[in-house]
Amino acid sequence: MEYVNPLTGLRIDGRRPTEMRHLKAQIGVVSKADGSALFEMGNTRVIAAVYGPREVQNRGQQMNNNEALVRCEYSMANFSTGDRARKPKGDRRSTEISLVIRQTMEACILTKLMPRSQIDIFVQVLQADGGTRSACINAATLALADAGIPMRDIVTSCSAGYLCTMPLLDLNYAEDSAGGPDVTVGILAKMDKVTLLQMDAKLPLDTFETVMQLAIEGCKAIAQYIREIMLQNTKQLECRRGS
Amino acid sequence: METTQMTEGGGGGATGIAAQMEVEAFRRLFPLPFYKRHLLESVRPDARALDYARDTTISLGPVASADGSALVKIGETAMLAAIKLEVMTPSKERPDEGSIVVEFYMPPICSPMVRPGRPAEVAPVISKQLLDVIRSSGMVNLKELCLISGKASWIAYLDIYCLNADGSLFDAALLSAVAAFTHLQIPLVSVTEEGRVFTVSSEQEEKTKFELVNKEKRKLSLSSIPFPLTCVIHEDYILVDPTAEEETVMETSITLVLDTLGNLVSIYKPGGVGLASTEIMKECITRTKRRMQELKTILEESVSVMEVD
């Protein structure tokens, strides 16, 4: 199957190989949550809600008295994928992604500032079209910012792959399931440090470097967009506050 | 932000614990007296009159991958409903009927009360209520979900997700279910020689040589659509369309469902401190009738907006 058309150089959805999907974000979608955000990357739509810092519910889980406990749960809506998912929450993939998101966000939250408390990050996938992991991390970053939780830096994430001898940025579901490699990268934007790096399938080393660089460029572009959204949001808050 | 001071006068049950207190603190510590003060003026904390429901919006088709979907917001309460159709063999007793499966989820994003490992108590209750109302209202004629009598019919999986829980959850859920069924488009279907039924997408339609079982993409013809209204009762006051705070404070809610033909489809009053006399029930029914007209207009508007697109 031609994932990159040899004549036009375009992918199946009409994008160029290093072009990301259309991004859209909205802060404050769940009024009951301390912080929330809706993040869209093309057709992938994800809502993140943050509750915290609040009292620790399960004393047994509280390992360290000097730090906040960060918990994360990832779940997909039944209708989010093409076929109706049978078990949207407890399955292995969801548990793995919950763990990945938790550890990624833990790296950037200043947990030492909030000892003996708990921060819950809940992510709900409404529509899945590839790159759900990345969309969840981006949504979680915005939700944490909306909740006012102190962070070291903003974390953004993007995926890239390698098909038909071309590195492709931001794979959608069709490209992801093509069987080629899929590199997901999460970086701390300003500090320029990699916090999440996952890859499956085989890649020669130099190709891997190109693909990873491409993903990092994608992350930086998303970070730019997230900053704009946060700035807009702050301006609105300032307006409402009347100052 | 200006902090408004509220002097503790003679009203309410709070006995002079603090002569002056901030409004927010008073609201948390003495919720019933706080509401009493508002009810005496026939108003609620969000400046609504007692018989006014919050702004309701319906948006059809937010989930592109589902056969029918709707997003409903009543105030801050948001519900996302989506219907996916799958083919199944009908039962022997009812060979020419399809079936509907309703599932209602309250994921942890919707409310601080819901946590992983401690699901919301109210979710399975609402799930059952929804199924009962959809079945007993007869809104969907199950015979329309039949494909080949005795061999194949549709099973409609209706999944409703609560995205923000701020009171009147059943109202929003039923409204989103109704809107999703209004939006539902049954896909085209064809049969192989072995008798296996498969869906034909619209691109394949022109090129196909298969025999199409249902000729045009059909919409369900819905009769007698049910519309709900939840009220809370406190002494002699009836508060229409409560927020989550009002539901927790007043503890007695009644949910009434009327259909477009004017029949009473369901009454649900699960106990509670407040008692409902016949007058109160009649009041609630009048309010529900008015709300039904409102909701009907809103639903029709959203359908026409979608058709324009």
Automatic annotation (TrEMBL), chain A:
Its main location: cytoplasm. GO terms for molecular function: RNA binding. This is Exosome complex component RRP41. The keyword Protein biosynthesis does not apply. The lineage of its organism: Eukaryota, Viridiplantae, Streptophyta, Embryophyta, Tracheophyta. Residues 19-150, 153-218 form the Exoribonuclease phosphorolytic domain. CDD domains: RNase_PH_RRP41 (cd11370). It is found in: Cytoplasm; Nucleus, Nucleolus. InterPro entries: ExoRNase_PH_dom1, ExoRNase_PH_dom2, ExoRNase_PH_dom2_sf, PNPase/RNase_PH_dom_sf, Ribosomal_Su5_D2-typ_SF, RNase_PH. GO terms for biological process: nuclear mRNA surveillance; poly(A)-dependent snoRNA 3'-end processing; rRNA catabolic process; U4 snRNA 3'-end processing. Signal peptide: none annotated. Keywords: Cytoplasm, Exosome. Belongs to the RNase PH family. The keyword Cytoplasm applies. One of its GO terms (cellular component) is cytoplasmic exosome (RNase complex).
From TrEMBL, chain B:
Belongs to the RNase PH family. GO terms for biological process: exonucleolytic trimming to generate mature 3'-end of 5.8S rRNA from tricistronic rRNA transcript (SSU-rRNA, 5.8S rRNA, LSU-rRNA); nuclear mRNA surveillance; nuclear polyadenylation-dependent rRNA catabolic process; rRNA catabolic process; TRAMP-dependent tRNA surveillance pathway; U1 snRNA 3'-end processing; U4 snRNA 3'-end processing; U5 snRNA 3'-end processing. It is found in: Cytoplasm; Nucleus, Nucleolus. Residues 54-187, 225-286 form the Exoribonuclease phosphorolytic domain. This is Ribosomal RNA-processing protein 43. Keywords: Cytoplasm, Exosome, Nucleus, RNA-binding, rRNA processing. It comes from the Eukaryota. InterPro entries: ExoRNase_PH_dom1, ExoRNase_PH_dom2, ExoRNase_PH_dom2_sf, Exosome_comp_Rrp42_subfam, PNPase/RNase_PH_dom_sf, Ribosomal_Su5_D2-typ_SF, Rrp43. GO terms for cellular component: cytoplasmic exosome (RNase complex); nuclear exosome (RNase complex); nucleolus. GO terms for molecular function: mRNA 3'-UTR AU-rich region binding. Its main location: cytoplasm. The keyword Protease does not apply. It holds the Pfam family RNase_PH_C.
